[in-house]
Amino acid sequence: KKDTRLGSRLAEVHNGSSLFTGDAGQGESNIRRWIIENDWLEAIVALPLNLFYNTGIATYVWVLTNRKPAARRGRVQLIDATAWHQPLRKNLGKKNCELGDEDIERICRAFLDFEETEQSRIFNNDAFGYWKVTVDRPLRIEGVDPERAYKASEIKELQEHGARSENAPPVIRRIHKRGTEADPLRGLFEATISGTSTVVEYEPDTDLRDTERIPLQEDGGIDAFLRREVLPYAADAWYRPDRVKIGYEISFNRYFHNPEPMRHLDEIRADILALEKETAGLLDDVLMVREPRASYIARPRIYVDTSVIGGCEDDEFRDDSRRLFEDFMTGRATLVLSDLTVDELADAPARVREVLDLVPEGYKDLLEQTDESDALAQAYIEAGAIGSSSRADAVHVALATLCGADLLVSWNFKHMVNWQRIKSYNQVNVDLGHNPIDIRTPKEVVNEE
């Protein structure tokens, strides 16, 4: 209703994906942007886990209206009601709690009071928005002429056969007419050609291309952020304003997360000493100086696909994914990755890519996609284990099989953690002389420890 005094208000129940899936410029993000920039989002309430039958996923109530009260205009309220529930005397499937009358009253009161508390946070609309900025650096090739512009065909030849070097001159793609003002931050650089000062554009090096997520509330905007965070480390970097995209995402964990206190050094030291004692003599076991101890269990090698890494920042899968990564970080298991996984993470949010950096180099292996893995993936497809449109998933299974991983761990229930597909994959493996591969979810792995 648009033409009435009260307008319309509605409440929708969503899972966590509605809060953050989709990159800037993509459908989900654009829907959030449309709602927030029109000032229709009044509040989001995070409900307790395991509230619904047959699923334990996190759920959220979105409250939308086209007639916000004056005090709420331009602002959004987030309410964390995850701890407000009553346990059931007997579980109904995965449902183990419910909202009691007192809980419903607390939620309504928090909404109506519209005040900052430990469970209620209030933000300006633009607090959830960000610019996705592509940052380029010039292509530098040894031996290029720094005083001429290169044609597209010449640049392609240089990219394929030229020798890149940080000390080489940048490749010029365009020389602007006299009167054009230099603006290095936007890719318009001042150069001297035939003794005359002019403005040029350089060819970007796609291998050096990066993206930055800059909050809409950043003081000074994009320019100030890049001058502070990028130019001190890459003075020749620039961005194209016409390629900037705006995205919106809402992270309850960012605003309501209570980090656990860091462990005391004495406690960590005690764990290290206990580990040293536990591993004493393992080298003798390896060299067969004496009989191996029956208590020795080799560190499992676990291949993970992109869904597990992304799961560390997903409300639905976070807890189990992070518990698995704790095993990798402490060396209780070896993280096995492939270059395919790394490539798939290239466009993921920075916080997802940074998950891999938490694992020490000594506790992770990086595999390369090979002709053998491609052939095995094709065999899965030809056997009907998986469709050709999901070839990347087939390659993950092939790489895990060929490297002899103890487990392949994934949240991909459609193409990997599916008993019928696992049976088909392993039938192909056995037929071709490979060992079967065990495929599990992180939840299954951490619960068996």
Helix proportion range:
25-40%
Largest sheet: 5 strands, mixed
Can you list the strand order of the major beta sheet?
1-3-2-4-7
Q: Terminal Cα separation, in Å? A: 55 Å
Q: Which class of secondary structure composition applies to the elements?
A: alpha/beta
Question: What's the structural blueprint in terms of helices and strands?
Answer:
Elements: E1 9-15, H1 17-20, H2 27-37, E2 41-46, E3 59-65, E4 75-80, E5 86-92, E6 95-98, H3 101-113, E7 120-124, E8 129-136, H4 152-161, E9 172-175, E10 189-193, E11 196-202, E12 210-215, H5 221-229, E13 238-239, E14 245-248, H6 252-256, H7 265-279, H8 282-287, E15 301-304, H9 306-311, H10 318-330, E16 334-338, H11 339-344, H12 350-353, E17 364-367, H13 371-382, H14 391-402, E18 407-409, H15 419-431, E19 439-440, H16 442-447
Parallel strand pairs: 2-4, 15-16, 15-18, 16-17, 18-19
Antiparallel strand pairs: 1-3, 2-3, 4-7, 5-6, 8-12, 8-13, 8-14, 9-11, 10-11
Helix pairs in contact: 13-14
What does this structure look like?
This protein has helices spanning 17-20, 27-37, 101-113, 152-161, 221-229, 252-256, 265-279, 282-287, 306-311, 318-330, 339-344, 350-353, 371-382, 391-402, 419-431, 442-447, and strands spanning 9-15, 41-46, 59-65, 75-80, 86-92, 95-98, 120-124, 129-136, 172-175, 189-193, 196-202, 210-215, 238-239, 245-248, 301-304, 334-338, 364-367, 407-409, 439-440. The chain has 449 residues and is α/β, with parallel strands linked by helices. The strands form five sheets. Strands 1-3-2-4-7 form a five-stranded mixed sheet. A five-stranded parallel sheet has the order 17-16-15-18-19. Strand 10 and strand 11 (196-202) form a beta hairpin. The model is unreliable at 290-297 (pLDDT under 50).
